[in-house]
Amino acid sequence: MSLSDVEEKPAVCPAAKIPVQVASLEEYKTLFAGDLTDAQREAHTQHLSCLHGNALAGTDDDGCLVRLSNFVYGAGKLAPHDKAFAEKIFPIQASKIAVEDMTVTTDIVYGPASAPVLLNVGTLTFAGGSITALNTVLTINARKVAFREGTGTKPYHIGILGTDGVTGMDGAHGDTPSNQAASGKDVQPASPGICTGVGPGGLGSNGSNGGDGQDGNLGGTGRPSLQANLTFYAFDNPEGEKLVVFTRSGAGGAGGRGGDGGAGQQGGNGGCGCDSGCEGTDGGDGGRGGNGGDGGNGGQGGDAVDGGDVFIKVPAEAVSSVVGVADIAHAGIGGAGGLGGAGGRAGNGGAGGKHSANGAGGARGNNGKPGQPGKAGIRQGNPGNIYINSL
């Protein structure tokens, strides 16, 4: 299984989460990033500067979140307007899990978009399971991490992932005219036994065209992977097992499928010719079938988003026991175009009277054109950096 093909389904965590209220940004920093090294903080600030240099130097509300991240996980300071912005956000609720021993045999998922999770563990043992944070802040503090035999379903032990954007809604199908177009008028004799001068049967009406399908809608924007802070004070891996930490942000959602074009209406039948006594007139020609509606174009795929950084701290001798894997989140694919509607059937020619010809059948309507596939999303999402440092 490829790391790029990982799909998450929420699972129940075996350890109870206790809701706690975090009163201020300073308290949040202490709880979730208080033990980051100076090197990790400087690296995070440099990363933010590359991605959001203008926001770090600005004073607008949109840039405040970047500057708050720089304060919590980097080496940034808060200006008065940033402190005022933080006061609007806090207090917030977080989830705290404290357990002496935690053996992970299933795929535990926090999120998507859950309150920040603080997991304090004595011994964290991976035995076939995994821990995944979906668009959720995660901090893990474990005195020891260990490995036991078990068949896992994920190619990692800890995953810091975003969530993919939703698929755009499909375009509506084009309308299909109901029933059949009006038939031509049947011709009646001028008087009993006399058809002279009344003419042929009436022409059948042409069918109405089917409606065009609507374009598919834009795919949703992905939601980012958020910051994670993972600290392990000792490793129990006598067989040389590696702790695999994987991160990928949220991919863009696929564009919606274009709606199918509606079918064209059947042409009306020609009217019957006069038929009285020994006289008759020709039947009327049938109407042409309506053209099928064109299929709608597929919607454009949604954009992916950049992810948050992952900070890992282990003893110096265990740095080589951690493998960090980061993957690009792709832009959403364009939606498929809708099918063109079928052309309407031809109307039948009307019956001719005595010694007269039947009317000709109408032509079948043209099939509608299929819609074009939607374009892919514009932006891919870069993964957050993984910083592995010694304690």
Task: Write a compact overview of the structure shown.
The chain is an alpha/beta fold.
Q: How many E-type strands?
A: 15
Could you give a short account of the major beta sheet? 8 strands, mixed
Global shape: elongated
Tell me the helix content: 10-25%
- Cα-atom radius of gyration: 35 Å
Q: What sequence of helices (H) and strands (E) makes up the elements? A: EHHHHEEEEEEEEEEEEEE
Structure explained in plain terms:
With 391 residues, the protein is an alpha/beta fold. The protein contains four helices and 15 strands. The model is unreliable at 1-13 (pLDDT under 50). The radius of gyration is 35 Å and the shape is elongated. The protein is 13% helix and 21% strand. The strands form three sheets. Strands 1, 2, 4, 6, 8, 9, 13 and 15 form an eight-stranded mixed β-sheet that branches. Strands 3-5-7-10-14 form a five-stranded parallel β-sheet, with no helix packed on it. The longest helix has 20 residues, at 38-57.
Task: Describe how the helices and strands are arranged.
Elements: E1 18-22, H1 25-33, H2 38-57, H3 61-73, H4 80-89, E2 92-104, E3 107-110, E4 117-126, E5 130-134, E6 138-147, E7 158-161, E8 228-232, E9 235-236, E10 243-248, E11 275-276, E12 279-280, E13 310-314, E14 322-327, E15 386-390
Parallel strand pairs: 2-4, 3-5, 4-6, 5-7, 6-8, 6-9, 7-10, 8-13, 10-14, 13-15
Antiparallel strand pairs: 1-2, 11-12
List its salient traits.
391 residues; alpha/beta; 15 strands; elongated
